[in-house]
Each structure stands twice: as structure tokens, then as C-alpha cells.
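Internal ticket #5521
Category: modeling
Description: The requester needs a full-assembly model to guide mutagenesis choices. All entity lines are attached below as received. Residue total reported by intake: 622.
Assigned to: D.W.
Attached entities:
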Amino acid sequence: MTERLQFALPSKGRLMEQATEVLAKAGLEVRKTGNERGYRGEIVGLKNLDILFVSASEIAWYLKTGKAHLGITGADLIQERMTDWETRVEMLKPLGFGFADVVIAVPNCWLDVRTVSNLDELAGGFRATHGRWFRVATKYINLSRQYFVAKGFNDYRIVESLGATEGTPAAGTADLIVDITTTGTTLKANGLRILDDGIILKSQANLIASNVANWTPQTREVQNEIMSRLGA
Amino acid sequence: MVAETAREFEALEAQAHTLLSTFVEAGHEAVAPAVLQPADIYLDVIGEALRARSYVFTDPDGDEYCLRPDLTVPICRLHLERHPEGTTQGNYCYNGSAFRFQPRGADAAHPREFRQCGIEAIGSADAEKTDAQTLARILKALEAAGLKEWKLRIGDLSLFRALLEAIDMPQRWRERLRHRFWRPLAFREELENLTHAAAAKNAADLPDDLLTALDPGKPEEAAKKVCAYFDEQNIDLIGIRTLEEISLNLARIAADQRAERLPEATANLIEGYIGVNAPARAAGARVKDLMRDTGVDIQPALDCYLKRLQHLSDMGVDIARAEFSAEFGRSLEYYTGFVFEVLVPDLGDKSPVAGGGRYDGLMKMCGAPEDVPAVGGAIHTERLLKAVRG
């Protein structure tokens, strides 16, 4: 196994910019190595470290399997991808960007539904009238299921949705959604309202360590250096 | 548990043979339903939570299947295939694999894959007698396999149902309490709501004059008022639920808020019943005392409970080893009446060696036109082998 610390960073978009920015502010300058279009990099002045540029959702998988020692990605993606995330990874430090809430939203016209428990109460009658259970559109299948189980709500079906989730209730493909939101404007524009107890998770980007990666004294040393610079 | 030795396999097979022969001798037909089951039926019966504890997958045609998490639903389906009307009597026994996802990782006490051996009695009219017979046969099989030390945990969900029926309250509240019974925390919260503060949070932000004007007895009027409110607030009607559905339900919520709360004494009675935990015979007396003190009559359901105990005793089951718990059965949503677990001291209370109960609603959920009386029990064969070996 390699003795070099593998550090996974988002490979594109706002998340990548913000991650490199936060690191740069801490004196950790990220630089691509080799081809500009490549997916490898380094931190100037740090030995025994490789940067891996990976999509934000893949980072969860890298940490879960130990392919990366450290990573920066959203807490929502970590908790969605690992049912046992508390044992697999360690959240080292919230980084102050990538804020997003995972929320349950229903049509605003459902004046009679303010809480998950209202949904639960309504489920039987809904099914009797419409011949099916409530459909919940989401890409957060595990987070939704865990939250609903904890709330005692079980009479629904998940419809996996990989984009434009907030449009599904109006389109009729789902009845309610679980999705991320930052300001709530998109939800409102689509005639949706967050339930009173509908915030499943307040997420932001985190520095995360994998507990299952192959840690050696050398890689720990590099981790400590990164953490002390970040003030973690 | 990556693999098992051939010797282990043979020991389990031999044990299954012993168990099955006692069932066959008692008149149960041995059947072997499919391991792969359509996920739909389980999802309908158990709900979306099933996915969190089962192996559900999509086949190349896009249809959802699961590795059966138990054998009761497959046997109901098998019975329905033979008798679409469902009411024909059928006594079955089986031995086969069942599969459960273990979120904290699998170990010997929580295997992903295990073998269940059990019986189901479908369509038999004498409920108490069939309940007792089922338990007696499970115990007889366990003893034939060499189990000596055991104790029983029993419950009866029909007592709770009878209690709710006997207490004076709006039918809607009854249904809510019944529905929430499966979720102890939500149940307590609901009971609290019905007893004390109006469920005000149900309709937060809505103007009082809208709520007070709504009457579930006048659905058309309610719809008009809600429609006017939508217009005034610029709320679009989206989704499949109609204005009538929304306004009627809102009117019911408003009526609930206006309705008189449950008396404290009633809430105490319900809590008191749920707290009953006693040896089987003493429990009957305890429940009777509770009812006498509050003037609520559930004698017919209590008679059924006592009759079942009598049957068990007549069939040679040592009732002194049975402990009744009113709360027992709360985690198993499809049970409707008698429930039981057989416990072995070495394995602890969390790992029963056998369990079962009455599930009168399950056949209908599987497609029968009506409810069909049914009761069954299953033995966790790996645990039994361990218990017998000591």
C-alpha cells in the first residue's frame, strides 16, 4: 500500500472553487499535476500527499472504502451513502461553505398537512381514495427512509429522482419531495412548503477522514499538518 | 458466517426433519414457496421500512423483487393461488431460508440469512382453539428437537382493540390511536394531544375564522371556504389531492380541535392497560380489575383471552411458564390478535427461539376479497440448534 496520503477534493463547480479557496486561505495551495485536464494534484510544500479530484458524490464512496484518507464533501452525501457513516468516517471540521438543508416539502395547498405525523394520519385515506401510497420523490433515499422511520411514518413509496425533483408534485409523478434547499426560493416557486418538522439535515461541506483507509505514521503526520493549518 | 461446515448443515437438516414431521403428523401439509417474492406485496404490508431491512432489487425487466424476509406472506400467496376466494381452510408447514439486512453488520445473533421452520393455519373459524393449537404444536416441535428449558411471552392485540371500542370517543380518534399503537412514542404523543392541549399545531398559521367556519358535516361549504382562502392567498392547487379532499380533512382537524378532550381518567385507563405485565392468568384478573374500577366493559374479549388459556392448558401447555405483556406485539404490524414468543434463558429475551401470532388482515392485503382468519408460528432453527446443544 502507498505511504502517501490520498486527499479527495471535488473535481468541479462551486464546491471545488470553495474547497481550494478554504485550503489556500490556510496556506495550503492546491495545484494540478500533469495534464491540466487530469484528475491529480498536490499541495505545494507538502510531501507524501496526492490530491484526487473526484465528483462530490464519489468522494463519499472513496472515504467509505478507504480509497482516500481524507476528503472534502457535503455531510448530506456522506450520510446518504453510508448507513454506518459514524463508524466509517470521522467528520473533522465543518468548512463554512456548501450550506444546504435536506428538507421534506409538500404542496403548499395541503393546508391540512403541517407535520410528518399529519402525513401518517392521512396515508390510509389517501390510499383508499387514490389506490396507491404517497409517492416521495428524492435522491436522498436513505436519509428519507431513516428520518421517516424515526418519525414512525411508513406508508409511502419512494420514487428515485435525479433532477428537477421540486417539479414532481406539480407534474403528478410524486406527491411530496425530500430535497436540498439553500434559500427555499425554488420550493416556493414550485408551490411547495417545508413541513414544520421537515428539516432532516442541516448540511455543509466538511473535512472528513476515513476510518477504514490504510493509515500509517507518515499519513497521520500529513493529516495532522493539514488539520493544524485549518485550525481543526 | 461466511460458510458453514457440512456437519452444521446436516445437523440443521436433521433438526428440520424432526420439526417438520411433528407438524405433518399434526395435519399440516409441507410446502416450499418461492424464495424470490414480488417486493410490492411486502411493501404494501410492511411499508417502505421494509427496504431498510430487506434485500430488494430490480430485475432486468424493471420489476422489483425481494429475497423473502419471512415465509408467512409467501404462504398466504400460495394459499391464494390455490383458493382465490381465500376462505378455504389450509394448514401448512415449511422449512426454508429467510433474509434480513443487518444495518449494524451481521453476526451469529443477527444473521443475514437464516432458516425458519413453521406452520400456518389459514381459514379456521375457531380462533382461540386454533391460536392455542398453533402454539402447542410449535412447543411440541421444539421439545421433539430436544429443547427443555423455555418460557413464554404472550400478548393479545384484540384486548387493546376492544378497550378502544369500549371507550367513548370519536371514531377518528380511535383509528388514530390504533394506528399509532405500533409506534410507542407517537402513541404517547397522540394520547397526550387528545387529552390535553388541542392539536393546535396541526393548523398553525391558518386564520381562526377559517378554521371555526369549517364543518366536516358540510363538505361543500368547507370546500368553498378553502377555495376562497386559496384565491386570497394566491395558493395554487397542485398535486393529485383535490380541493374537496383537502378541505374535508381540514374541517375534520378543526372539528377535532373543537371537540372535548379525552378525560384524564380515560387516558390513565389506556396507559394502565398498556402497562399490564404479569403471569398469564394473573394478567386476566388485572385487566378485569382495571375495567371494573372504570366501568369500561371488554368482557367478551377478555373471555376469549381466558378461553385461549384454557385451551392451552387442556392441550398440555404449562401456562405457569407464560408471561403476559399488554405491549407485546407492538413491533409487528401485521398481527391482529394473539401473539407469542418462546424464550430460552441462554439466548436472552432479545433472541426468541420461536414466535408467531394471529394475522387476520394479511390475506386481504395479499389479495383475498375479505379478511381471512389466520394464525402461524415460526422457529428460528439456527438458534434452536444452539439452544439444544447448550
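Resolution: model delivered.
Comment from assignee: The interface with chain A takes residues 43-44, 46-49, 51-52, 103-105, 175-176, 179-180, 182-183, 185-186, 189, 201-204, 206, 226, 229-230, 235-241, 245-246, 249-250, 253 of chain B (CB under 8 Å).
Ticket closed.
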